[in-house]
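The data layer described in this paper is built around a simple, fixed record for each protein. Because each token names a local backbone shape, the row as a whole describes the fold. We quote a single record here, exactly as it is kept in our systems:

***
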Amino acid sequence: MTPGLSVQGLSAGYANRKVIHEIAFTAPRGQVTALLGPNGAGKSTLLKAVLGLRPCRGEVLLDGVALESMTARQRAQQVAYVPQQSLLAARLTVRSVVGMGRFAQRGAWSSHGEKDRETIDAALAQADVAHLADRAFPEISGGERQRVLLARALATGARTLLLDEPTSSLDVRQVLSLHAVVRELAERDFCLVVVLHDLDEARHHADRGVLLAEGRVHSEGSIDEVVHADPIRSVYGVEVHEREGLAFRLPASRGR
């Protein structure tokens, strides 16, 4: 495994309540790491602690360098975040929202240059939202907003992406398209950590899994080792039942 994200002994929470306890896992470059666990297991808190958005104890290394040693701007240039949803209510265009991703490179008050515009256009296209570029962000659907947030993360130029339930509002085609984008990024040696609730989705689209239970790492390893009968029974209290079902893929002619 090539270097990527390494979390060591990370603990964090809210007020007087600790949510995650001594978390340790690795997310190598070139692979998709799925962060799994029941509601309340601490997945979102863990992402925010890694990003520095929650006070925490422990260490987070990116390619062997402690994120704590970086300035906020340096960290934003290295790690981008796709939240579950955006609270942005201003009637900004989709292009303007994606353009916010360039702040990490140029600062909040700098105007976009030619390279910035090219990067924004590429991010819009890669997230399949170029056709929405001139629409007002609050007026598009929840699934479309999620893809715009992905485009904003891509526009940062960061090569480590943390995605919190990115497929929760997407239809089946959009889910497949998003996973195709994530897979393409993995093939370009990005480091990708994706929170997923659907275990079958994780098994089909992730390489590695980190399974949380009550704020601690229960299992870590290949996705087939983690999404397996014994860990799932222990954490979710359900039996894994293998059976045939519907399967979907994008038409080959569409590229992804």
User: Anything to note?
Assistant: The first strand starts at residue 2 and ends at 14. The domain at 2-86+159-254 is CATH 3.40.50.300 (Rossmann fold).
